[in-house]
Amino acid sequence: TQLLEQSPQFLSIQEGENLTVYCNSSSVFSSLQWYRQEPGEGPVLLVTVVTGGEVKKLKRLTFQFGDARKDSSLHITAAQPGDTGLYLCAGDNTNAGKSTFGDGTTLTVKP
Amino acid sequence: GAGVSQSPRYKVAKRGQDVALRCDPISGHVSLFWYQQALGQGPEFLTYFQNEAQLDKSGLPSDRFFAERPEGSVSTLKIQRTQQEDSAVYLCASTSKGTKRVLEQFFGPGTRLTVL
Prior knowledge:
The complex is a heterodimer. By secondary structure, chain A is an all-beta fold. Chain A is built from no helices and eleven strands. In chain A, strands 2, 4, 5, 9, 10 and 11 form a six-stranded mixed beta sheet that branches. In chain A, a hairpin with a 7-residue loop joins strand 9 and strand 10. Chain B is globular and about 40 Å long. Chain B starts with a strand and ends with a strand.
């Protein structure tokens, strides 16, 4: 079983602060996705990273895939209350034939 | 365009009752996935369809769980003789590609099942 560990589990910060959340595994993934899920809704895809060392930016969000494709990070600059939600990473491995979600980081941004 | 829809959004069942959860994927999407999400956890894979064929049901927790997609579009997840541990949000996702990979999956809002 391929496990993805996300940290921290909970994070509460003030508006305007920066933050980084992590997604780690001992397994290599073909690609990794980050989703955001709001209460009562399904996860919404934010980004897919494929190449080791890849960095993708989406406005104030910066995603990085580790060189060995075992881990990833999400950095948010100047967080806003609208960033509040559950951030999930999901690892995809074509060889394993099954994708795995982490348990997520619950982010709360206070105004 | 319409996204993935699920019904009902909320379901309360007494222990021992049977329930049926419906998923309407995005029109034309080939692959359909069911996930179970317990409170405070990430989604866990239950089963996967490519068109009408159920290609992987390895995540179904017991033989009380049954899923079908007879015409390759709408899917139903049925849980027989519900137990309290079945209480969770059941998510459906679809993708236009005929693949089991997570890439580009579009999720519905989920059905929250509470078993009393």
